[in-house]
Design a protein that fits this description.
The structure holds 2 protein chains of 2 kinds. Chain A is mainly α. Chain A is built from 14 helices and 2 strands. Chain A has a single domain (64-285), classed as MetI-like fold. Chain A has helices at 2-8, 12-15, 17-37, 55-62, 65-97, 100-111, 118-129, 134-141, 153-175, 181-189, 194-223, 226-232, 239-249, 253-285, and strands spanning 40-43, 47-52. Chain A is globular and about 75 Å long. The chains are: A mainly alpha, B alpha+beta. Chains A and B meet through α10 and α11 of A and β6 and α2 of B.
Chain lengths: 286, 367
């Protein structure tokens, strides 16, 4: 065993060379090119200045629109993450506790929405939430005046929360490994009523999965632009949609690059926060 | 010392307790028994006999289909587990991995809203009781199996439950530790005078530490009694074979009670319905050689094999009975002088006292 390992070990680093090379070429290089764009001036019609400049950043800071955009993006992503968590948690727990022969079927059912393009699912939500859609009609039928559910932030939050839920469910299931129904029984036998069992035993043991799912859904909701574009009807402005608009519509590439850099910093902060909290959770349960 | 159920005040009573899943035969069928205060009940049987189901019904972890669980005269059948006041030690210990040992123990006390200072005191006392006084700050996974077992026991006992339930608590330990732990569990149980129910498939464990044993098979209570009663006077062939080592001889009985083993006829008559019977004999109650005194019965055969196990020499004597496995015989080894070890194939006879002979109707083929 050890001799085999020793003999093959020198070859192992060579095996990663293709992947590293591919990544350097197709990911890191464009990334650096893109981000360096943020430090040139942009001109209407797609012109890019020749000299390094902070003009883009200056205009971003002077304009109230961009800080607001950042805050709005964060707030929307947080709402989506919380809703996805609250909806996915009981579902994931149910799947986890299901008899073994059902579990695989249920897992597949939970993640099968991923087989459909997000665009298709977004149009599905348009049909459900739109003015003549199922939900408003139902509300009208039982005598409520339905609030507007599409072409505003509400629609974006509802749609994205559902579209990203499979990722949350998968993360939660991955993090539920330490849950064990016998622990619930032990807690109950020690006098814990059902909700206390959940609060003191199930929830703490599932925190790693919760954290992972939140990170994933948060990052995905900050970066998605198709669903906000369609369900927001152009009225919901987020970092991702603005990047798209600046890059494709206005052709202001330096501004798009700067916004991308801001988004990247948001992701970095989310990762650091995740790492810190995850370590504390691990220490608390290691 | 063992109290009998009659002298101790009844504490736990099961009345026609039954569990059914679907239309099949019940997992536990109309089980009724009474346990005195401070006594330890062993639920003993092979896997699938319903012993764990019974324990879980007592603890409220599964609902009984019918019947009642009565503790101190109070019907607790409908109570959820968190209101039953029973300490449970699980087979896999079920310690909370995200809490320290001390936090595990404190959990039940916190649920009972015991003041903080008192919790610390009682947790420490419980840890000292199971000889883990210095390990309160450890995590469960930093402990050995035996230590985890002790923590599980301490956690179930620190809440001072009315009844302690133990679900095969020793089955995950290695043999030497198992014997040590069972003694420890028994000591603590007796010192605290707590009523306990102990589920096990190991008859030696049940005999060693329980005041009463309920032998179960496929959901039915086969016999309920003290270890001595179960061992000396098994109610049927199943109990006789399950508890302790035993020799089984297939024989036939005539209408007048005469017993035939193969071609041989025994000197003893045991009245009963004619037909096939099983004669059950404890190996250590047998004697090698013919005994002609009244009250003794002798069969003849030949030495099949001898096994030396130190304190005892086991002689396997093949008794001439159609197609039967040789019956095994224990002979106490003489400590002084050379003991003659019988050789394989040597003719030998085996004798036993009539009083030690247990005869059950049937061939035992189904058992």
């Amino acid at each position: 065993m050890t001799t085999v390992a020793r003999r093959t070990l020198p070859l192992l680093p060579l095996l990663v060379v293709p992947a590293v090379a591919l990544n350097l070429l197709t990911f890191l290089y464009p990334m650096i090119r893109l981000l360096s764009l943020a430090f040139y001036e942009g001109f209407p019609g797609g012109g890019i200045g020749d000299e390094l400049s902070l003009a883009v950043w200056q205009s971003m800071l002077e304009d109230d629109f961009y800080p607001g955009l950042l805050l709005n993006s964060l707030w929307t992503a947080i709402q989506i993450t919380v809703i996805a968590l609250v909806c996915a948690y009981p579902l994931a727990l149910f799947v986890h506790r299901a008899p073994a022969r059902w579990r695989n079927i249920l897992v597949v059912a939970c993640i099968s929405p991923l087989l459909l393009s997000a665009v298709v699912r977004t149009y599905g939500w348009m049909l459900i939430l739109g003015d003549a859609g199922f939900v408003p009609s139902l509300l009208r039928a039982i005598g409520f005046d339905p609030p507007r559910l599409v072409f505003n932030a509400t629609g974006v939050v509802i749609g994205l929360a559902e579209i990203l839920m499979p990722y949350m469910i998968l993360s939660l299931l991955a993090g539920f490994g330490r849950l064990n129904p016998t622990l619930d029984e032990a807690a109950a036998s020690l006098g814990a009523p059902p909700f206390t069992v959940f609060r003191r035993v199930i929830l703490p043991l599932s925190l790693p999965g919760v954290l992972l799912g939140c990170l994933l859904v948060f990052v995905l909701s900050v970066s998605s632009f198709v669903t906000p574009k369609i369900l927001g009807g152009g009225r919901v402005l987020l970092l991702a949609t603005e990047i798209y608009d600046q890059a494709i519509v206005t052709l202001n590439w330096p501004l798009a690059a700067a916004l991308s850099l801001v988004t990247l910093i948001v992701f970095g902060c989310a990762l650091v926060a995740y790492g810190r909290i995850a370590r504390r959770v691990e220490l608390g349960s290691a | 010392m063992r109290d009998t159920a009659e002298t101790a005040a009844p504490h736990l009573r099961l009345e026609g307790l039954e569990k059914r899943y679907g239309d099949g035969p019940p997992a536990v069928a109309a089980l009724s028994l009474t346990l005195g205060k401070g006594q330890m009940l062993g639920l003993l049987g092979p896997s699938g006999c319903g012993k764990t189901t019974t324990l879980r019904m007592i603890g409220g972890l599964i609902e009984a289909t019918s019947g009642r669980v009565v503790v101190d005269g109070r019907d607790v059948t409908e109570l959820p587990p968190h209101r039953r006041d029973m300490g449970i030690v699980f087979q896999n210990y079920a310690l909370f991995p995200h809490m320290t040992v001390a936090e595990n123990l404190a959990f039940g006390l916190e649920m009972r809203r015991v003041p903080r200072a008192q919790i610390r005191e009682r947790v420490q006392a419980a840890l000292d009781m199971v000889r883990l006084g210095t390990l309160g700050a450890r995590r469960p996974r930093q402990l050995s199996g035996g230590q985890q077992q002790r923590v599980a026991l301490a956690r179930a006992l620190v809440i001072e439950p009315s009844i302690l339930l133990l679900d095969e608590p020793l089955s995950n330990l290695d043999a030497s530790l198992r014997e040590e732990m069972r003694g420890e569990i028994r000591d603590i149980q007796q010192r605290l005078g707590i009523t306990a129910v102990f589920v096990t498939h190991d008859q030696a464990e049940a005999l060693a530490i329980c005041d009463h044993i309920a032998v179960m098979r496929t959901g039915n209570l086969e016999q309920f009694g003290s270890p001595e009663e179960i061992y000396e006077h098994p109610a049927n062939a199943f109990v006789a074979e399950f508890v302790g080592r035993i020799n089984r001889i297939r024989a036939t009985r005539d209408a007048d009670g005469t017993l035939h083993v193969g071609a041989a006829t025994l000197a003893t008559r045991v009245p009963g319905p004619p037909g096939p019977v099983q004669i059950m004999l404890r190996p250590h109650r047998l004697r090698l050689g013919a005994v002609t005194e009244p009250g003794w019965t002798t069969v003849t055969g030949s030495i099949h094999r001898t096994v030396f196990v130190g304190d005892v020499l086991i002689c396997e004597v093949a008794v001439a009975a159609e197609g039967d496995a040789p019956m095994i015989l224990n002979v106490e080894r003489h400590t002084e002088g050379a003991m003659s070890v019988p050789q394989r194939g040597e003719p030998a006879s085996v004798s036993w006292r009539e009083a030690d002979m247990m005869v059950f109707a049937g061939t035992g083929a189904a058992a």
